[in-house]
Amino acid sequence: MVFNSYTFVVFFAVVLGLHHLRLPWWTRKLNLLLASYLFYMAWNPPFVLLLWVSTVADWYIARGLQRTEAPGRRRLLLLATLGVNLGLLVFFKYGNFALENFTWLMGSLGVSYSPVALDIVLPVGISFYTFQTLSYTLDVYLRRGKPWHSFLDYALYVTFFPQLVAGPIVRSAQFLPQCVEPRRATAHELGWGLALMVLGLFEKVVLADGFLAPVVEVYYDAAVLPDAAGAWIGTLAFAGQIFCDFAGYSTIAIGSAMCLGFELPDNFRFPYAAMGFSDFWRRWHISLSTWLRDYLYIPLGGNRHGQVRTYVNLSLTMLLGGLWHGASWNFVVWGALHGLYLVLERGLKVLLVNAGWAKSGLALSLGRIGTFVLVCFAWIFFRADTLPRSTGIVAAMVGLGETTAVLPISDAAWLGLGVALGVVALQWAMKDATVETVAARTPWWALAFGLAIMLAGIVMMPGEDRAFIYFQF
Question: What pTM value is reported for the model?
Answer without folding.
Answer: 0.92
